[in-house]
Design goal:
Helices cover 69% and strands 4% of the residues. With 195 residues, it is mainly alpha-helical. Strands 1-2 form a two-stranded antiparallel ribbon. The protein contains nine helices and two strands. The N and C termini lie far apart (46 Å). The chain has two domains: 121 residues, no CATH class; 73 residues, no CATH class. A hairpin with a 2-residue loop joins strand 1 and strand 2. Helix 1 packs parallel to helix 3, helix 4 packs antiparallel against helix 5 and helix 7 packs across helix 9.
Length: 195
């Protein structure tokens, strides 16, 4: 499991995510949304655990791989449809990651471990899985929170913040102190966590 192999897998994951037709603006330039997300999640996970295992590093880079190919509209609106979509999406990501990892030359044990992380098996008891979840929550809070605030009714927003916070470990929660929240973001976070 050498560094060259890891970098090869990163290149393959990034190439897949670079096909995303959806874009986000980063430093004034439009970039493929899932490519940006994957790189941000990788950085968040490494900040939380600089000694992350190879499986955790790989899972972070491919957690939302080719996500645009399975949009939310593929399932009915409402909570039941949303939960079904999330379950199918996790499975889709795990299948996509396995295909790329096999092509990179990783063995079946490592591929299976990455898939376990993609599927978030044993969340709260698996340290790597919890670190990945913390990273996901941190990326959401740092890069997507303000957009959600602008588009979401207050009570629903407070509920989302509370659920996000509950998913995080104390280490992940502490890492939020490194995020430069907007004034609105700070106020919503404080309000949600004080009740």
């Amino acid at each position: 499991m050498n560094e060259a192999m890891l970098q090869d897998a990163y290149r393959r994951f990034d190439a897949a995510n670079a096909e995303d037709p959806n874009t986000v603006e980063v430093d004034g330039q439009a970039q493929p949304k899932e490519l940006v997300f994957a790189r941000r999640l990788s950085a968040a996970v490494l900040a939380l655990n600089p000694d992350a295992s190879t499986a955790l590093k790989l899972a972070a880079r491919c957690q939302h791989i080719r996500r645009w190919k399975m949009p939310r509209s593929t399932q009915p609106m409402g909570r039941t449809g949303y939960l079904k979509w999330r379950t199918l999406l996790k499975k889709f990501h795990a299948e996509q990651s396995a295909e790329i990892l096999a092509a990179t030359g990783y063995n079946s044990d490592l591929i299976e471990r990455v898939q376990e992380l993609n599927l978030k098996k044993n969340l709260k008891t698996d340290k790597d899985c919890q670190t990945l979840e913390d990273g996901l929550c941190l990326v959401f809070l740092e890069y997507q929170f303000d957009a959600l605030i602008a588009d979401t009714e207050q009570e629903k927003l407070l509920g989302i913040v509370r659920k996000t916070w509950a998913k995080m470990s104390p280490h992940g929660q502490q890492a939020t102190s490194n995020i430069a929240f907007s004034e609105k973001g700070t106020r919503i976070l404080q309000q949600a966590l004080s009740q």
